[in-house]
Amino acid sequence: MLFTESVRIAVNALFANKLRSLLTMLGIIIGVGAVIAMVAVGMGVTQRVTDSIASLGSNMLIIRPGASMSGGLRGAAGSRTTLKYEDAIAIKKKIKDIDYVSPTVQRSYQVVYGNQNWNTSVTGVTQEYMSIRDLKVMTGSFITEDDMNTRNRVAVIGMTVASNLFGEANPVGKTIRVNNQPYRVIGVLESKGQSSVGQDQDDVVIVPLTTAMDRLLAVTYVQTINVQVSSQNKMDDVQANIETLLRQRHHLTGTKENDFQVQNLTSLMSTMNETTTMLTLFLGSIAAISLIVGGIGIMNIMMVSVTERTREIGIRKALGATFKDIMTQFLIESVVIGVIGGVLGILFGIVAAQAISKFGDFQTVITVAPILLSFAFSVGIGLFFGIYPARKAALLDPIEALRYE
User: Fold this and answer.
1) Which residues of 241-279 are buried (b: 16+ CB within 10 A; e: fewer)?
2) Shared-domain flag, residues 224 and 115
C-alpha cells in the first residue's frame, strides 16, 4: 500500500510541474528515440548488405580473371582474359562438393524493339545460372542446354527491360535486336529489386553463353565463373581445390602468381556483417550519450525538488517516516520520470525510424532488442541519478527541515 501511495504522490508531483517535468524527460525521450532510430539505421545497412550478397547466391565462389592487385599494381596486359569456358567444365567435372557451375560474360548494349530502345547489360550464362542466382521466371522459360548447344539467339529479360521496351504487353515470343542482331524473347524474370549499391537487378538481358561468346562478343574467354558449393563448411576446401586445379590448367608452377582470383562470398558476408555490426554499435553508443545527459537532468530536477520540499520532508520525518520511506519516495519519482520518458522515447524512436525509411529512401530495421535495452537503460538511468537526491532528502534532520523557509 505504501508503494502505491508513493507512486501516486510521485505522479501528482510531476503533474504539478508539467513543463518542468516534460523538459526533464526530454533528454530521456531524445536519448531512447535516438538509440532506437540509429540502431534501426545500422541494422538496415546490415540487412541490405546481407540481402545484396545473398542475391548473388548461397555458398558462392566467384572466380575472376587476372592477378590480385599487388603493391597497387594490377596484373600484366592480357591477364583479364585468362579464364576459359573449358576451365568451368573442368571445375564441374573434377571438383567434389559442387552443386552448380556457371561461367558468364557481360557487356552493355542498346536493345531495340520497334521504335523503343533501352541501354542495358547483356549477360551470357548457362542454364545453371538460374539455380545459382535463385532466379524465377515469371512468364515463359529460361535458357536450356539445347540453346547452348545450338547457339540460339534467344533472350530472357528482366522486368525493367520488359517495361521500358514493351510496356504492358507480354514480351514472350517477340523479337528484340541486340547489337543489330535479332533475339527472340523466351522469358521474363521475376523482379529482384535493387542491390545494396543501388544497382537495378531487373535491368538485364540474359542470353546463352555460347551465343554471347561466339555471335555477340566474339571472344574465347569468360569474365567470371560462378560456383555454388553444396555446403558452407566445404567452402574453404572447394576453394583450395579450385585454385590447385586452375594453376595446373594454366601451367602456373612454383612461386608464379595466380592469373585468377577466387572470391569467397561467405567470408565476404561475414566480414561485411562484422563491419556493419560495429557501425550499428557506434551509432547506438553515440545516441546513448543523450541518455546520460537526460540522467543528469533528472538528478538536477530532483535536487531542486528536494530543496523545494524540505519542510514537507521534515513534517513526514516528524510524523514517523523512516530513512527508507523518504528514500523510496524520491527514488520512485525519479524512476517514474525514466519510465514515462522511456515510453515516449520508444514511440519517438519508432516514428523517427519509419520517417527515415519513408522520406530518406533508406532501409531501416526495427527490432525488439534495442527497444527493450534502451527502455531498461532509461529506467536504470532514472534510478541511478535519483539515488543522490533521494539520499540527501532522507538524511535531512527533521528539526532543521521544519525550520527551513
Assistant:
1) bbbebbeebbebeeeeebbbebebbbeebeebeeebeeb
2) yes
Query: Contact at 8 Å (CB) between 402 and 315?
Result: yes
**Residue 254 belongs to some domain of the structure:** no
Range of the domain at 96: 83-249
User: For residue 76, what are the CA distances in angstroms to 66, 203, 254, 258, 384?
Assistant: 8, 32, 19, 12, 65
Sorting pLDDT into bands at 50, 70 and 90, what band is 52?
Answer: low
Assigned C-alpha cell, 122: 547483356
Indicate the pTM of the whole model. Answer: 0.59
The answer to whether residues 288 and 321 belong to one domain is yes
* Mean pLDDT along residues 329-342: 83
Percentage helix, strand, coil for the chain under 3-state DSSP, each rounded to 5: 60, 20, 25
Q: What are phi and psi of 260, to 5 degrees?
A: -150, 165
What three-state secondary structure class fits 83?
coil
Cell representation of residue 239: 576453394
Condensed to tens digits (0 to 9), the pLDDT of residues 140-190 reads: 999 999 999 999 999 999 999 999 999 889 999 999 999 999 999 999 999
